[in-house]
């Protein structure tokens, strides 16, 4: 039995993949909803697993998938305490590079499996739309979860250098915060001034990532901008969707960490130091 805690866009996509892979699930959230996942090939999968809205109604499972936003982790702790036995692994599908630190005191570090999600999904009127592109979750090599989604559209991809993989994703996440601040989707990066800002921010993030032990290739900042320019103009990011919906933003795990880690290594982060308070104040 697998429990998915937090059934937003990414939680729903992961739950759909696990159902298609043949697993028994329980969906844990504050409220029950009727959700359908529409894949990029046009097919639809309606979630069929039972919903539970009270942690007291569940017991230990074989695997917990934590798919709440990073800043919602504290509210998920009662679920984790009920769903875990002593050695139950927790696959953490959250942005950032501080997965184990965020769960300290609730889940032993050796039971935390950090996951890097490469999938763009947006919930629109009860349907989770999966945008065209890669649909994969990167996990540290040797975690034994590699085959959990076999038979579905979602790949679990073990990586040897997880530090580099996590920072690679974080650089993208930090840069696309520009979408949340402008209220615009990927088309905003075609503005020359925004494109220049995005590159400078990517350079800043790469410097911090390198100091933290990541081994990003030369020219990675330019690669980030090239990828953003290649995206369909209607593509967005979860922090933009949250801003448009008036929800609290996941700014600290995506951008605040750049300033924090930069300061710890003595690296100036002037762009992040401006963006972070703006993101924190955004409503």
From TrEMBL:
Record-annotated Ketopantoate reductase N-terminal domain positions: 2-140
This protein's pathway: Cofactor biosynthesis; (R)-pantothenate biosynthesis; (R)-pantoate from 3-methyl-2-oxobutanoate: step 2/2
Gene3D superfamilies reported in the protein's UniProt record: N-(1-d-carboxylethyl)-l-norvaline Dehydrogenase, domain 2, NAD(P)-binding Rossmann-like Domain
Entry protein name: 2-dehydropantoate 2-reductase
Catalytic reactions on record: (R)-pantoate + NADP(+) = 2-dehydropantoate + NADPH + H(+)
GO molecular function, one term: 2-dehydropantoate 2-reductase activity
Enzyme Commission (EC) number: 1.1.1.169
Matching InterPro entries: 6-PGluconate_DH-like_C_sf, 6PGD_dom2, ApbA, KPA_reductase, KPR-Related, KPR_N, NAD(P)-bd_dom_sf
Role: Catalyzes the NADPH-dependent reduction of ketopantoate into pantoic acid.
């Amino acid at each position: 039995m697998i429990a998915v805690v937090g059934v937003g866009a990414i939680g729903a996509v992961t739950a759909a993949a696990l159902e298609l892979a043949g697993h028994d699930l329980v969906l844990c959230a504050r409220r029950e909803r009727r959700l359908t996942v529409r894949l990029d090939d046009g097919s639809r999968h309606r979630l069929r697993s039972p919903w539970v809205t009270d942690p007291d109604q569940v017991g230990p499972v074989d695997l917990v998938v934590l798919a709440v936003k990073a800043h919602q982790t504290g509210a998920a702790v009662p679920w984790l305490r009920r769903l875990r036995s002593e050695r139950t692994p927790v696959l953490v599908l959250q942005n950032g590079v501080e997965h184990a630190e965020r769960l300290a005191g609730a889940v032993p570090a050796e039971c935390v499996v950090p996951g890097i999600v490469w999938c763009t999904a947006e919930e629109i009127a009860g349907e989770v739309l999966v945008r065209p592109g890669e649909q994969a979750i990167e996990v540290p090599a040797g975690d034994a979860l590699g085959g959990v989604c076999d038979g579905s559209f979602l790949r679990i991809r073990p990586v040897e250098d997880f530090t580099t993989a996590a920072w690679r994703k974080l650089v993208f996440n930090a840069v696309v915060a520009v979408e949340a601040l402008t209220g615009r989707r990927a088309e905003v990066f075609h503005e020359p001034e925004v494109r220049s800002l995005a590159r400078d921010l990517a350079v800043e993030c790469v410097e911090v990532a390198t100091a933290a032990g990541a081994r990003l290739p030369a020219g990675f900042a330019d690669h980030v901008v090239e990828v953003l320019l290649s995206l369909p103009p209607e593509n967005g990011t979860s922090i933009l969707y949250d801003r448009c919906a008036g929800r609290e933003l996941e700014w600290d795990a995506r951008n605040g960490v750049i300033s924090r880690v930069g300061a710890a290594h003595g690296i100036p982060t002037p762009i992040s130091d401006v963006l972070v308070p703006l993101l924190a104040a955004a409503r």
